[in-house]
């Protein structure tokens, strides 16, 4: 299986503030399993690759994530059962179709996350307010700001993020940690829509 996270015959699993990057499948959720996914980043590219593969009887709770899908990658393949003898899968090509038609990830995004350098496994987010520099333990300002800054679940804890933190969790690995990218202090407005 080329899934980053394969959940088989398990229940009550939570995947929070994670990064599943450069896999054929982000999460494969088998029948009779359940998982909650929030404030996480998925990077999937290539034909016949999916951020989510969900079995017909699997239970999924998923919202406030970012799905970076390129080069023909699909958002999801969800199993359906049409009785004892018939089954199949529904394919969702975008986060919008997944949210509208399946009801998952209604507050999730589909943007390039804006990592400092994923090729070096530096998954800190760009920010004009400053991103954490691993080698020095300091913060450095960037020319751009990731749309994932302050985009996490509004009821999730954020108080471990350094000031200024916008009063809301960053999506991704460093949300609610001392290494979270800082919120820019200049006013900005990010337009978010389901037109992915």
How do you describe this structure in short?
With 196 residues, this protein is mainly beta.
What does this structure look like?
With 196 residues, this protein is mainly beta. 4% of the residues lie in helices and 35% in strands. The chain contains one helix and 15 strands; from the N terminus they run E-E-E-E-E-E-E-E-E-E-E-H-E-E-E-E. The protein has one helix at residues 95-102, and strands at 3-7, 13-16, 19-21, 25-29, 34-38, 41-45, 50-54, 59-63, 66-70, 74-81, 87-92, 115-117, 122-125, 131-133, 138-140. The protein has a five-stranded mixed sheet. The chain has a three-stranded parallel sheet with strand order 2-5-8, with no helix packed on it. A hairpin with a 5-residue loop joins strand 10 (74-81) and strand 11 (87-92). The chain is elongated, with a radius of gyration of 17 Å. The two termini are 28 Å apart. The mean pLDDT is 91.
